[in-house]
Write a structure and sequence with these properties.
The protein has helices spanning 58-64, 69-80, 86-97, and strands at residues 3-4, 10-12, 18-20, 24-27, 40-43, 48-49. The strands form 2 sheets. Strands 1-4-5 form a 3-stranded antiparallel beta sheet, covered by helices on one side. 25% of the residues are buried. The protein has 3 helices and 6 strands. Helix 2 (69-80) packs antiparallel against helix 3. The N and C termini lie close together (10 Å). The protein is α+β, with helices and mostly antiparallel strands.
Length: 99
């Protein structure tokens, strides 16, 4: 069952960026190829996010902005480090949005 194992805690740096104060851990039902553990995304404390990489999914972002911060951080992390594929990152984002 997909779920966030930790809460999102950030320190806002400016109008664009925030740093994670503590790790954000997300357990997904979607297997991430060539990544261990294959079903857990661990975004470490200190990761810098703009919550905005989901702009690549414009329709979803239009409805999600401001209410999808945790899924956006996971998505940013997967994209930044090339973890899995674009399709997998997008599926995980959409899955997390449904929680």
């Amino acid at each position: 069952m997909a779920r966030f194992l930790t809460e999102l805690m950030v320190s806002i740096q400016d109008d664009e960026f925030a740093d994670l104060i503590s790790s954000l851990i997300y357990e997904t039902d979607i297997r991430i190829p060539n990544y261990y553990p294959a079903f857990v995304v661990h975004v470490p404390a200190g990761f810098k996010t703009d919550f905005e990489s989901v702009k690549r999914l414009p329709i979803v972002f239009m409805f999600a902005k401001g209410v999808a911060r945790r899924p956006s951080v996971v998505h940013d992390f997967l994209y930044k480090y090339g973890i899995g594929t674009k399709a997998v990152a997008d599926k995980i984002f959409l899955e997390a949005m449904e929680l």
